[in-house]
């Protein structure tokens, strides 16, 4: 996997930045179209990451189910994605990529 920038920011700083810049849920700074490309490339091996995907690993939450969970927030996702979290590998996403992927995940909820 390409090892791109590994920003030396703490999760707290990152969560603060995103919290400060994200107005309403689902209305953050990320670009959902870019996030979809990232999700299809990096996440779809394990997660059902898009509407046209039908299979992935069992026991791994689909992105749509994440988007629809009451306890899942953009801040929570951003912290999760910069924190190593076995069994899920550390994806080494940049801050922008994380914002994009979160915007994409949140866009999947049936509203
Ligand atoms: C190698 C398999 C794998 C890949 C690739 C992967 N994940 Fe995961 N992911 C998992 C597993 C397994 C879990 C469940 C972890 C747990 O329950 O603690 C998980 C959990 C998550 C959760 C948290 C779910 C919750 O219940 O709070 C999020 C968010 C998530 N993944 C996002 C992503 C994103 C975004 C990508 C791509 C950038 C990605 N994952 C790529 C395996 C993977």
UniProtKB/TrEMBL annotation:
<keyword id="KW-0732">Signal</keyword>
<dbReference type="Pfam" id="PF00034">
    <property type="entry name" value="Cytochrom_C"/>
</dbReference>
<dbReference type="InterPro" id="IPR009056">
    <property type="entry name" value="Cyt_c-like_dom"/>
</dbReference>
<feature type="signal peptide">
    <location>
        <begin position="1"/>
        <end position="26"/>
    </location>
</feature>
<keyword id="KW-0408">Iron</keyword>
<dbReference type="InterPro" id="IPR036909">
    <property type="entry name" value="Cyt_c-like_dom_sf"/>
</dbReference>
<keyword id="KW-0479">Metal-binding</keyword>
<keyword id="KW-0349">Heme</keyword>
<feature type="domain" description="Cytochrome c">
    <location>
        <begin position="30"/>
        <end position="109"/>
    </location>
</feature>
<protein>
    <submittedName>
        <fullName>Mono/diheme cytochrome c family protein</fullName>
    </submittedName>
</protein>
